[in-house]
Design a protein that fits this description.
The complex is a heterodimer of chains A (108) and B (124). Chain A is mainly β and 108 residues long. Chain A is built from no helices and 9 strands. Chain B is mostly beta strands and 124 residues long.
Chain lengths: 108, 124
């Protein structure tokens, strides 16, 4: 098993770029996924397979990987992007799913 | 548009069984994998398990002895039962569609649609 580590909070001003990291001591050869969760709303998948955007997700959301750290980048942050963001991964068994601790994005 | 909605009691007594139902609209549950995930206050999201139309069921090993997930295809619903609950089972419970897709030798394993979540408190 492994643990995914995210910063508890990230703050940016409107129009700036937010970068949220997710790291592990050892990251197995598995993809990373990112979710956005606003209070009282269903979580939304914003990135899958490290870098892919689901249909309907704006281009301002992008994902990348470098070694054992994956990053969610939100360009041109707006007030409505304020939310909790979670990374997630799994192994190849279909029986092991792990989530990061979540990062609260605050738009100043 | 795929939508999921959790329902069930918001308060359960210790040692009793927690029961939740997820009603799915916009797609038939006879396809795909359908999962439960929870988040205790101040803690991480935790995958509980899934049921699939093929009859396969997988549970988180840490909860396996107490969990049952089943589906009611005619009603397009799936359910969670968690027995012998304690205060540690107090959490927001989410239902979600889980995608398990082979991409070469890589298994893509993620959740593309979620419900809003329902808070279940375990207390006497």
């Amino acid at each position: 098993s492994y643990e995914l580590t995210q910063p508890p909070s990230v703050s940016v001003s409107p129009g700036q770029t937010a970068r949220i990291t997710c790291s592990a001591d050892t990251w197995p050869s598995q993809s990373a996924y990112w979710y956005q969760r606003k209070p009282g709303q269903a979580p939304i998948l914003v990135i899958y397979k490290d870098t892919e955007r689901p249909s309907g997700i704006p281009e301002q959301f992008s994902g990348s990987r470098s070694g054992t750290t994956v990053t969610l980048t939100i360009s041109g942050v707006q007030a409505e992007d304020e939310a909790d963001y979670y990374c997630q991964s799994a192994d190849n068994s279909g029986s092991y799913v792990v989530f990061g601790g979540g990062t609260k994005l605050t738009v100043l | 548009q795929v939508q999921l909605q959790e329902s069930g009691p918001g308060l359960v007594k210790p040692s009793e069984t927690l029961s939740l139902t997820c009603t799915v609209s916009g797609v038939t549950i006879s396809l795909d994998h359908w999962s439960w995930i929870r988040q205790p206050p101040g803690k991480r999201l935790e995958w509980i398990g899934y049921v699939s139309s093929s009859g396969s069921i997988r549970y988180n090993p840490s909860l396996q002895s107490r969990v049952t997930i089943s589906q009611d295809t005619p009603k397009n619903q799936f359910s969670l039962k968690l027995s012998s609950v304690t205060a540690a089972d107090t959490a927001v419970y989410y239902c979600a569609r889980q995608q398990l897709l082979w991409f070469g030798e890589l298994l893509l394993d993620y959740f593309d649609y979620w419900g809003q979540g329902t808070l279940v408190t375990v207390s006497s």
